[in-house]
Structures are given as C-alpha cells and as structure tokens.
Amino acid sequence: MKIALSLLLTAILTNNFILCKFLGICPFLGVSKKLNTAVGMSAAVIFVMVLATAVTYPINLLLKANSLEYLQTIVFILVIAALVQLVEIVLKKYMVSLYNALGIYLPLITTNCAVLGVVLLNIDNGYNFWQSIVYSLGGGIGFMVAMVMFAGVRERLEGCDIPKALQGLPITLVAASLVSMSFLGFAGLVDNMFA
Amino acid sequence: MAEKKSIGKEFTKGLIAENPVFRLVLGTCPTLAVSTSVSSAIGMGIAATAVLFCSNIVISALRKVIPQKVRIPAYIVIIASFVTIIQLLVKAFVPALDSALGVYLPLIVVNCIILGRAEAFASKNAVLASAVDGLGMGIGFTAALFLMSTVREILGSGTFLSGIKDLLAVFSGDIQFNGFTIPFLNENPLTIFVLAPGGFFVFGIMIALSNKLAERNGKPKAELNGCASCPMASSCALIADGKKCEEVDVK
User: Fold this and answer.
1) Which one of A186, B20, B186, B217 is most buried, by most CB atoms within 10 A?
2) What is the mean pLDDT of each run of 10 residues along chain A (195 residues)?
C-alpha cells in the first residue's frame, strides 16, 4: 500500500510525465487551449495508458520467456496501435456515451510518446503487474493535472498584451516553463513522506 | 511537383527554411528531453537521422505497394524496425549513449518528424529525393538539438561537449578530449537551465528568434496548429471533416 501510494504521488507530482519527463508535449501544447478539450484528451490518455500497461505486461513476460526482449519496441507500438483501434470499435458499439466523450481523441493517442513511454518505463524500472498499473494510472493523472493547469494559464494568456516576437508559440512555451518550475517545488516530497 | 525541384534544394530546405524543430515544430519531446548536454543531443540527432534516412528510403520504395488504408500501421512497422536496429547498435557500440538517452532512444518510433516525413514526403516522392529529404531533415533536427543543448549545457552546467569522449570512442579508444569547462559558469552553474523549466524556456526563446528571422525574410511564423502539426492528422476522422481538435467540444 505504501509503495503504491508513493508510486502514485511520484508519477503525479515529482516526476510528472509532461512537466518533468517531457513525454506527451504535442497534446500538451496542441490540445490545451480549452479546458474541456484538455479534460477529454487527458481522460482518454489515462484510459489508454492503464489499458496498454495491462496488455503489454503479459506480452513482455512472453517475450522474456523466449529471450526476444529486443523486439519490445516494435511489438509494443503495434499492440498499442491495435488496442486503440479495438477500444474505439468496442466503445462505439457498446458504450456510446463514453465514445462520444473520448472517441475523437483516441486516434491521436497511438503515437503519443506518453503511452509508449510509460510502458517502457514500467519495464525499465522492473515494476510488477500492480505496481505498473498504479504507475500508469499516476502518470495519466499527472498528465491530466498538467493539462488542466496549463489550460487555465492559456485562457488567461489570450487577452494579454504580449511582445510581437513572443506571440503564439514562444509565450506558450515560456508559460509552460513557469508551470514546470512550480512542479519543481514538489522535489523530494515523496521521499520525505515515506522515509 | 517536388520531384521537379533540384536534389540540392530538397537537402537544404530541412536545414533552415523548413527546419523540423524551429519551423515545423515537430519532435518537441526529444528536443526538450535530451538537450541537457551537447553530446547526448548529438547522439540523439545521429540516431534519429539514421532512422529517418533509412525509413524514408524504404517507405518511398514501397509507396506503390502499401495500400492507402493501412499505410500508417505499415509506416510504423518500418520505422520501429529501424529503431530496433539502431537501439541494438547503440547498446553494443556506445553503451554510455544508451544510458544517457534511456527511454528516449526507443521513443524515436513515435518521433513526429519521422512519421511526418513518411506521410508528407516519402509516400509521394521518388527514392533518391526521399533519401535526400530524410538526410536534410535529420541534419536540421541535429542542428536544432545542437543549438538548444549548447545554450543549456553552457549556462546550466558550465561545460561544453562534456562526455563527448564516449561518442568518439566509436572511432578510436584513445581520444582523450572530453569537452571544455567554461571558467566562471562551471563554479556557479545556473542549474535551472538543465532542469525541465529551462528546457521549455530556451525552446520558447529559440522559436521567438527563429520567428523574428522568418519575419525579416517574409516567411510566416512557426505555429502549432493543434492537430495540423500532428502526423496522425490525415488519418484522424476529425481532420477529414475539416475541423481542428479545438473546435470539437466534449459532449
């Protein structure tokens, strides 16, 4: 329980996927203009991250048993791509309300580095099945926290008088830098809490 | 169309006019993540260039064979195969680079530059043009990483090219050169520049500078248009309807 909580908080706060690990920057900059799209996108990311971890964990055991670990990258990206397609079909058929909420974001997630990243990180860190699930869930929630915070910041930027050269993307990145700096304040938090 | 252009133009466009990082705003994740030191940035640039060059050639050669409907999965398989090859080569010959890049080395698979070039260029052009395009874009990516990491390493750790020995060891084991130390900054580094916020900040300033230069030459600003910069966009149903992500609200 203690390990699970520490993993969860690490993934959300101290090692936030977007703001500290730079995984999933494209949606972070691209889909964070409005609060509700940011929430929808992050919900889909959480969903796919946890599902991808649950599916790839046994596949990795299978690869290991046959000493085919070097195929990890190629197998995982294909599994994730197929999984996203499958989820889309299943949701469309049986859970229409969920499909309406998340469906439009699903095709965008296949090539999201956060999803492949979390799967590979789980293996690199040697987590067991439940630890991997918790870490993926934390990573997804951390993604949502960052997206929602940043959507708020960007809505405020809309009406600001910004120097001409910095308008658009540059000021967005500078704002991201400030949001990321605020997360540096969490450094050491989890270690101290569970020391 | 593009085939009428000279090969030289295909090569040089990736360097400045269509620089993948500063002009097309692709591949932001690796750009921010590995630009903390110049030597890992160069290593990442070379690895990505190799993958881009090879995958562009193969995808272009197969462009008439791959059915339109399954082209994205097919591209991903081709790219992932080359990434695996590069991964094994790096692990065998430059283990220090492997540990420096960590998870970002396999993540070249989802680097938007590579899938983006496959979709936008290699799938429509002849093999030679695609190879040159891949090489130019790869070198443009490496140059952008080099610029970013130079600023970040000098300000953030007070060194330049530190750890380059491990990269050069591929050619010869007895090179002793291992970078420079910057006199004042080495004792008083501005550590924030090698941390995450510094990455965002330096990238923002770089884009602002490149926009300024583009404006002087009468070119449009670099812009991240939501889905438009995403290589999946053309296969995404949203775009087919002529909408941007941001225009579709969650019901």
Assistant:
1) B20
2) 86 89 84 81 88 94 90 90 85 82 73 86 91 94 93 87 85 92 85 77
